[in-house]
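Reminder: ligand-aware prediction takes two inputs, not one.
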Amino acid sequence: MTNVTKTFLPPLDEYNQILKQAWDAGWITNRGTLVLKLERELKDFLNVSNVIALTNGTLPLQIAIKALKLSGEIITTPFSYVATTSSIVWEGCEPVFVDIHPEFLTIDESRIEEAITPKTTAILATHVFGNPCAVEEIQTIAGKYGLKVIYDAAHAFGVTFKGKSIFEYGDVSTCSFHATKLFHTGEGGALFFRDDQMYETYFYHHNFGHKGKEDFQGVGINAKMSELQAAMGLAVLPYVPSLIDSRIKIVKHYHQELSQFNSIKIREGTKWNCSYFPILFESEAQLIESMKRLNGKGIYPRRYFYPSLNKLSYINYDPMFVSEDIASRILCLPIAHDLDMTVVDNICKWIKG
Ligand SMILES: *Cc1c(COP(=O)(O)O)cnc(C)c1O
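Here is what comes back for the chain with pyridoxal-5'-phosphate:
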């Protein structure tokens, strides 16, 4: 069976060796040495200003909204994972969707201004499949209207744009280290931000609002990463460059064999991480037919993102023509560090008929 992705598991003895440090210290959570070490290593590896390791990739979205004191309307993309929208709703704000660009698949920056109202406080956009949003144009708009910018960068581990980590754009970026993501800690995630002065604010929000043992700075939640998660991250991180290399090879192969299909257009200036490989069918019927054929051979690609988030039951429906159209025709093909090229060849053959 071949799934859309496969978790990279580091050699068990390497994981155990790191884990032993937690055993020796008798300390498995509350920001022990492994979490601190992972944060340091992430900072070096990604070349970013600030990082706070968290327990998953959804809480950083919620914490970002809370810490930036957002209210009212947040402009967002309908083409993302549900966590992008649900976090806005969970924090008592209203998601206002702006349709996506038909090739980049990220929020269409040319349509953001017309969606801004006096109630708008922020833009929350997703770097879809690791493809950066139009970060410079979005910054210009945000500056003009005094809006905050949050990026759901769950797919964007290791991506750079114009020579800088993509996590350095916007007010804050969130990442997921879920087992299905390129870099993972089993479950996990992080907040990345440039502004050193925001460190304390994000920090207390992720740790119950604690300011020291007995004092509280404000309302917080528990989103701390554990030592067990950090141990996995420390064991996986050294392999990330080779994981990306093997994905680049697979993506090249898919592109060659499936040249008649459109995929995602990567923005110029990007060093992409090949985190996903989507193809677009001409119709939903063709997608379903192709998917059934693959399933019959034990190949399980994934309709992702599907459905378009403006169709969620708890959202006042407003049509998003591009996003709904793309969501109905897009299929993410299997991609993993150890996916055999003969399997890739077969997948390409079976997609075509
Ligand atoms: C995976 C993902 C999330 C959620 O991350 P978790 O770690 O599973 O909470 C959020 N947004 C996007 C775009 C994702 O792909």
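The two ends are 19 Å apart (CA to CA). The chain has a mean pLDDT of 97. We will return to this case in the review session.
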